[in-house]
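Please decode residue identities from the backbone states below.
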């Protein structure tokens, strides 16, 4: 194996391999079922559980945020699972086996996490801040750690699969459709949760809340698991170009985690983009931990109505994803589209704060819809740019790295949002000021991300990455 072979990505037996067919539009939408399921699950965790724990169970927002963020802090496992899916096929496929096992685990774990959550609330009400309460908080954290590992085992191979089955000329369409389906899932999850929780009023007894939430976490995860199987069965086997692209396909078992770390640090643009993604995601999702409590405390919304807030923002994001991938990004370019998205998101945060002072839910929902539009633009452009900074030979590794940046940032955004709310309550007697602090910090972060984006150079990455990675792989494999 020579450096030239590694650079062009052509294994010795490429001529004997059958070229997979082009990915069709129906399969793109079918793949979206998997992302739809993840969207539904996100509503359950950060759209229902955060509200129940902060408002109904009266658990401090910081503790709630830290506990919920633990599944996101399992993000380093994404790099490992991405590397494993590159190197170790499971059930004869590089991606599908990992995706299915992960989906089974995270849907089951979600239900058990809810049962532990009730124990935390009961212990806090009965015993206060004593050892039994700390024990159940630790158990709840463990549930979310397992949940996060299962998401990493499933989500990173799925993202790598998108690279495996797509080409440069249709990759933006794949991204637009699949992530649009994520927003469809959020909308469906919000509507379904709202219906199943409709009987839970603002002053509903805790037993009523428990019964409704338990039913929700039985029915919805079962649907999500079915969607994961329907969306991915047979896709990798028919469409994957992994073996025709990967120069290490026949020597996968030789690639180690140490090699993975070398690959991720072989180009300075990888680090720059990693930092940009980190700041962007923290700022974009800092409000996740406090949005539903904000609706409940400032606008007196019941659980069923605050859950529907996800549908409002999700609809905006869906429109943003559905239009920007085809219309905006091809015209403005990925980096310029990202800058516009960051500015629009900052404006939406300002409007959300203003709506709180007016006390008008209609203005709040309008600002939330604008946030969704801006988030859709930002997501499409950043994902497209991410795939440009991915090398086919080690797609799982690079996708794992980007997933690491995003998930770790989501974890920190949840913690920072919850901590900022509690800190604001210490500083201010007015609840609106406490919530406003969270949104103001998020807006400042969006502006900072623009400055970081200006330092990212895709051309530099593309010019240098192949040679650097080829040298690493030749040294490790020969």
């Amino acid at each position: 194996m020579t450096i030239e072979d590694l650079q062009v990505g052509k294994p010795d037996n490429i001529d004997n391999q059958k070229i997979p067919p082009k990915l069709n539009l129906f399969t793109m939408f079918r793949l979206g079922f998997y992302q739809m399921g993840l969207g539904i699950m996100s509503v359950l965790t950060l759209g229902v559980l955060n509200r129940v724990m902060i408002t109904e169970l009266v658990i401090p927002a910081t503790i709630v945020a830290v506990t919920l963020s633990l599944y996101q802090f399992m993000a380093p496992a994404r790099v490992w699972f991405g590397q494993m899916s590159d190197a170790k096929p499971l059930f004869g496929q590089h991606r599908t086996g990992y995706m299915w096992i992960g989906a089974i685990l995270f849907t089951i774990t979600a239900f058990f996490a809810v049962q532990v959550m009730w124990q935390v609330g009961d212990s806090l009400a009965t015993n206060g801040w004593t050892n039994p309460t700390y024990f159940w908080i630790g158990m709840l954290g463990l549930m979310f750690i397992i949940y996060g590992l299962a998401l990493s085992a499933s989500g990173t191979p799925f993202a790598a699969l998108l690279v495996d089955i797509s080409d440069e000329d249709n990759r933006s369409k794949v991204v637009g459709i699949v992530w649009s389906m994520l927003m469809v899932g959020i909308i469906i999850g919000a509507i379904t949760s709202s219906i199943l929780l409709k009987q839970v009023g603002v002053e509903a007894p805790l037993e009523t809340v428990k019964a409704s939430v338990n039913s929700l976490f039985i029915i919805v995860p079962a649907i999500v698991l079915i969607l994961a199987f329907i969306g991915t069965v047979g896709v990798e086997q028919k469409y994957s170009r992994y073996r025709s692209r990967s120069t290490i396909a026949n020597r996968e078992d030789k690639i180690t985690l140490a090699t993975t770390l070398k690959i991720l640090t072989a180009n300075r643009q990888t680090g720059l983009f990693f930092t940009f993604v980190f700041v962007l995601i923290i700022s974009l999702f800092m409000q996740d931990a406090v949005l539903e409590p904000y609706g409940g405390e400032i606008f007196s919304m019941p659980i069923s109505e605050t859950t529907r807030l996800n549908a409002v923002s999700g609809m905006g994001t869906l429109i943003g994803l559905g239009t920007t991938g085809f219309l905006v990004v091809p015209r403005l370019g990925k980096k310029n589209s990202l800058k516009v998205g960051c500015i629009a998101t900052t404006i939406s945060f300002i409007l959300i704060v203003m709506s709180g002072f007016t006390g008008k839910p209609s203005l709040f929902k309008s600002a939330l819809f604008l946030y969704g539009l801006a988030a859709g633009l930002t997501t499409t452009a950043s994902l497209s740019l991410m795939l440009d900074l991915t090398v086919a030979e080690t797609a799982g590794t690079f996708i794992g790295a980007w997933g690491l940046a995003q998930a770790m940032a989501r974890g920190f955004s949840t913690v920072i949002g919850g901590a900022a709310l509690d800190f604001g309550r210490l500083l201010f007697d007015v609840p609106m000021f406490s919530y406003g602090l969270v949104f103001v910090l998020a807006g400042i972060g969006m502006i900072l991300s623009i400055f970081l984006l200006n330092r990212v150079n895709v051309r530099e990455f593309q010019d240098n990455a192949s040679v650097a990675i080829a040298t690493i792989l030749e040294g490790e494999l020969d």
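Observation: The radius of gyration is 22 Å.
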